[in-house]
Each structure stands twice: as C-alpha cells, then as structure tokens.
Amino acid sequence: IETLRKYVAEGGVLVGDVNTGRRNEHGRPYETSPLDEVFGLKRIGQLQIRYRTGATSDEGTVTFGKAFGGEPFSMKFAAVGPGDVVTDTAQALASYNLAGKTHPAFLVNDYGKGKAIYLNFIPSGYVAVELSGEGEESTTKTLKGKTGEYFQRCFSRILQPAAIDQPMKFVGRGLGSARFGAGDLSYIGVVSGRGLEALRVPY
C-alpha cells in the first residue's frame, strides 16, 4: 500500500475498481482503506460486495456526462459498486443510480504529482471469469457499433493521465490505428472499413 501511495505521489497513475484496497494482506477488511485518500473518496458503512447489474433493468447503468468530455453516453457494465462511495477530493466524471440514489462511477483525483482513477464499476467479462473460478483464463468479447465506440472512449480517458495515446489520429470515421512493437521497432497498422465495426477487447 505504501509503495502505491509513494508511486502516485511521485507522479504515477493508479487505476482501481470496486473495493480496491479494502482488505489487508491477510484478507481482513480495513476500517478505513489507506488507498481511499489516494483515490480521493470516502466509504459509507462496512465492506460490501459489488452489485451485479441485470440485463432487463436500467439500474446500475453508468452515465458519462459533460464532465467526462465529448458527447454524453451511457453504458451497462457487469457490476457496479454497492453504493458505499462518496467523493472527497476526487472529481466524479460519471454516475449511476441504485435504489433511487445517485452514486459516482468514474472518479479522478490529483494526489501529489500523480493521479488516481477509481472505477466504481467492473467492466463486462471480468465478473464472469472471477465467479467461474477460472481466474487463470481470460476471455474476449466483441463489442459492436456504439458499444465498442463508448468502451473505447471510456478506457482512452483512463490512459490520458499516463500520457498513453494512439500513435495516429484520424478525422472522421472509418479509419483507426494499432501499434505493434518488437524491440526498438514499432509498427503502425491502419484499419479501415469493416474492421472498425467491431472492437475486440481482451480481458
């Protein structure tokens, strides 16, 4: 924990999701997580498990509004936080509703020279692998159309503080790029047409 705090304070970028840093090395819950200050949030009540969203309900849908940047959009993830997080020094760039209450979903906090990003949701696929007991096995989902575009926008925003960006940017639709590296060599591939209809995201 102290290594992570120091890493961010000295200019690093830390990303966590639901309940990150809530337990110690023995698996016992902290009364107050030492990472809460880094993420710029406060907890309400005792440790709770994440809330799994259902396919037939809008509850738990994450809305990325004007604060997130660009055109607002909404996404349904596999799970969201149980409603125990409130912002302290962090800025909430997205939110979701549970039981009639609004909760922060995408929190960004300045800590020392660095930044900490707390995702108060769990991306699709991760929960399924976790609950299956096959933690060693990764899965791949194909996200089509607007869903793929929104997913890409969401996670591009995570990479921005770390100064990780696409090697090329294109104006308009229909073109994208992918970078491959081998030693000192870098290859940039340009994808066009049907290749952008589905965004393949590995977990």
Number of strands: 17
Report Rg: 18 Å
The helix/strand series, from N terminus to C terminus, equals: HEHEEEEEEEEEEEEHEHEEE
Mean pLDDT: 78
Distance between the termini: 25 Å
- The assembly state of the depicted protein chains is single chain
Shape descriptor: globular
Walkthrough of the structure:
This protein is an alpha+beta fold. Helices cover 17% and strands 35% of the residues. It has helices spanning 2-9, 36-39, 126-132, 145-159; strands at 13-16, 41-43, 51-52, 62-64, 73-75, 79-80, 85-87, 91-92, 94-98, 101-104, 106-111, 114-119, 121-122, 140-144, 175-182, 185-192, 198-202. Strands 1-12-11-8 form a four-stranded mixed β-sheet. A four-stranded antiparallel β-sheet has the order 5-4-9-10, with helices on one face. A hairpin with an 8-residue loop joins strand 4 and strand 5 (73-75). The longest helix is centred in the last third of the chain and has 15 residues, at 145-159. It is globular, with a radius of gyration of 18 Å. The two termini are 25 Å apart. Residues 126-140 and 193-203 have low confidence and may be disordered.
Task: Spell out the key features of this protein.
4-stranded antiparallel β-sheet; alpha+beta; 4-stranded mixed β-sheet; 17% helix; globular; 203 residues
Q: Could you outline the blueprint of secondary structure elements for this entry?
A:
Layout: H1 2-9, E1 13-16, H2 36-39, E2 41-43, E3 51-52, E4 62-64, E5 73-75, E6 79-80, E7 85-87, E8 91-92, E9 94-98, E10 101-104, E11 106-111, E12 114-119, E13 121-122, H3 126-132, E14 140-144, H4 145-159, E15 175-182, E16 185-192, E17 198-202
